[in-house]
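stuck on this one:
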Amino acid sequence: MNQGKFRYSMIFLLGFGFFGISIIWALYNAYVPIFLQDTFHLSKTITGFIMTIDNLFAVLLLPFLGALSDMTRTRLGRRKPYILLGAPSAAIMFALIPVARRYENLALFMGTIVFMNFFMALFRSPVIAFMPDITPSEKRSQANGIINFMGGLGALLAYFGGKILYDMNYAYPFYFGALIMLIANLLVVIFVPEPEQYRVPGAKLDIKKILRETTKKSFGELKENLKDVFASREKSLLAILLAIFFWFIAFNSLETFFTSYAKYHLGIEESTGAFMLGVFSLSFMLFAIPAGFVGARLGRRKTISLGLLITTAIVLVAFYIGETSKPASSSLSDPVVMSFMGLFFVGGIGWAMINVNSLPMVVDMTTEEKLGGYTGLYYFFSQAANLVAPPLSGAFIDVAGYKTLLPFAAVFFLLALITMRFVRRGDIVKTKLDAHEYIPDLD
């Protein structure tokens, strides 16, 4: 494939696509649960179900849209038409979220976030697929590190800058987030050229045929790989996938409801709770590459287990602090708030040790021919967890209050740690890529 001359500057520019996407998701997860509970007085269980809409679109639409963009040919290329349609539409819907809240009309609010999630899904796969389009095989690991760094930078800007804007007006983070996401993706469209072979007028696409073939291929391969998981006499693959399922339930429950916990249980502003999550993201981003080298030196299984021990301990200590002392104010200098931020910084290190080393473990349990299929297994179990976590943790909060959130997460981190004891394969294979080359998407 003729990809033209490779330049890292192009990858940094492409990284703005991930930068914009990460800003939107960070703000969405931090503040929309608050809106659902404060304005519309929805239960935590229902709030949790609503917060799974993006994961549902990811499971149902992303494989199809990725295949559709593969087959698209236009004068702009095969990825840019989806970015041009999806990014502005998603930005408009995202900016309308606080407007819909102001009208206190649940149907209007739900319609806004459903369309916003749909338009985000519309261009997410094409943006992800853009990187290998313009990057030769031997440079893709470095390129992946760059675009994930840009994604992490977007999340940090959302959490830290979002607090300042939210304290001024709850709508401002949505307006500025939408604007930045729009500008970021326009930079991609304007300055990152697609390969010449894709910038040609194409024939009319048979959507029904593509949908049928993509569905058959995706779900057929998934079915066969799931058979491998459960039929194998050696249960390492099943164990690591269950561990992934458990720790993503723990993490996603915290991501969805921690700002609500901060407001309703600790009694501080939700923007301060979002800032705490930003500290977690900061330490994850700083330690992501070192965590890969630790996994290579210590072993992936031991590194993941150590990370799970750290995160479990951090969550339990945070629970103890939250139950025995309450912040006197929402100030970042409040001792309790500072204690949480210190714990979250260490927790981000533990999460990096887990997350960076898990995908390599899964793919190193199979042959080169099945790498894509086993990568699909990883995302299937992580997305399944993201569908389960918000409504399940929300149900516990409905029954017993926000004091259950941190113990809920700790239990699932602990279940993941126990399950890791049954993993016997998946450590370093010298013919595979280096550990730091598997840094996951921070979205």
